[in-house]
Each structure stands twice: as structure tokens, then as C-alpha cells.
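Section 3.1: Structural characterization of target chains.
Under the original work plan, the team committed to producing a structural model for every single-chain target entering the pipeline before any wet-lab resources were allocated. The record below documents one such target. The sequence was received from the expression subgroup and is listed exactly as submitted; it comprises 310 residues.
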Amino acid sequence: MMKNLFEQSRSHWVRYDHYELKTAEDGKRYITPGKSAKPDVYNPLKEVPNIVLDALNVGMLMMGRKPEAEVEKAMEKLGCIAIYQQISSDTKETVVLDYLRRRQEKKQLVYYLAGAAEWGVEEDGKSMLDVVDTAAEWNAKAGEEGGFTGIVLDVEPYLLEEWEADQERCMKQYVTNCVRTYERAKEDNLAVIVCIPNFYDRIGLSGFLEELIQNGCDGIAVMNYNKKDEAGQIEEELKLAQEYNKGIVNITEMQMQGYHGLTDENTYHDDGIEAVFDSWEKLKEQYPYRNLGFSWHYLKPCLELMETES
């Protein structure tokens, strides 16, 4: 968690009011402060809700040591210092703790990624609360050697059959569960990011969306999987994030066409990594919000693209 990651630091932390992408002579692109950017010294322990970093969803590939070099290469190329990590139920605790230690050595932030559609409509919200308890338990055992900064809840109630029958009831229960989970997470000093689609406001659920952003998370990660109007599709979500001083992460799809019905309109698989950087630059120009971040979905197709483009 944030306390575990930074409490031993003896240095001041500095951020700038805006950043830009630059291409080096070797062709690599880096995130650097803008030419006229103004520095600001801050304490990261006091600003967990306001820190949004470019992140990489790594799936299940990164828990072991074998793919470490590939992952490090991807993190550098893609400009990421935060990881959304899934953990299978049969993963040994020693593997998790070793993984957290390695991430801290690399100065990378880790979020525990978990979720299932049915979690959204559980009346007691137990599954979401269990994620918080699990992450907190691992953090306690990791101690100063590492820990989770927070959790990412990938819960999509609109995939359930009952959504078609009564989407407002499902959405109300989902938001209630998120609020409960957020309150529990704050007790354990864990940040909460909630994964959402880009259409809740367009299907008459704007009130629930506002409640979710205001009281159910530190930030939202929007699955902005349509290239036709990327800025317009997150306009309402970004306005609400700004209003309540919450983070917003734009997730870009990188999987091959055909997976889960993906088409050229949904994924940047054939466009390549540079096209994604260009897209993000346009979004940052249109929405110069300091808490706007970006995420790749997910590691495996990014590694495949990097190998193809090299």
C-alpha cells in the first residue's frame, strides 16, 4: 500500500502540472515534464486518491520470475509505473509476497485486480469486501518489503441476464456494494479504482454513475473501447471526476480482433503502440486534467506487438 511503499523514503517528491511524450534518438518514447511545467513538492501519503499513473494490466503473466525481463521491457516502452495484477485463487502466499517485494524494488505500484459480474448484485457485497480484506492481509504480512497500493474492481453487472430485466435494481446494488467496499478500503489505507464501461450515462444511469464516482472509489478506469469518439465517450465521466476530485483512467484495448467480438473499431491491435500514444496525446490536449491517466489492456498483446514492431 502507499504507506508501505513510501514511508522509508527520505526524499521530497516532486510532480509537475503537466507532462508530454518525447521521442529519443533510439526511437523510444518517454513521459517527461512539459517545457513550461511548474514543479510542486508534495507528500504522496496524503494524496492517494489524487494520484493517477499510467498503468499496465498484466493479467496472470507476471506473478512468477520467468517473464520478469519481458515485463520490464514492456513497462519501459509503454511508460508505465503502475500494474493491475490478477491473482489466481491457488497462488501460494510466498509467491505473492515475493512478487510484491520485487515490484517495490522496481519502484512500481501494484493494484490487486479482481472481480466478477455477479459480485455487483450480491446483497451483502461480501465478494468485494473480501478483496479488501485479502489485500490488507497480504500487506500486513509483506510489511516494509512491499504491498498493494490499492485494488481495482472489475465488476460488470451489465453482463448478467438479470440486468436486462431490471438494470436500475442491479445498478443500485452494484453502487451500494462499491460504496461499502470503498469505506472498508479506506480503513486499511487501500486506494480503490473501479472499472466501468463508457455508457452508463447514455442508458439513463447518470445518477448512479455520479454516486459511484463521488462515494464509491478514489478513481474510475473507463473501458473506452471504441475509437470513433474516444473523447466524447468519456466526457461525462471526466466531468464528474473533476467535480469530485477523483482520478480517471482511460483504458485502451490491444487484443486481436475477434476476441470477445472485438472489431477494428474497438482495438488498436493493428494500429500499433505509436497510434495509442497519439490517441492519448489528443485526449490530454482536450482534457488537461491532472488526474487523467491511461492504461493498456493488457500485457500479452502488448508484448506480441512489441515483438512484431521491433
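Confidence is low (pLDDT under 50) at residues 1-16, 41-51.
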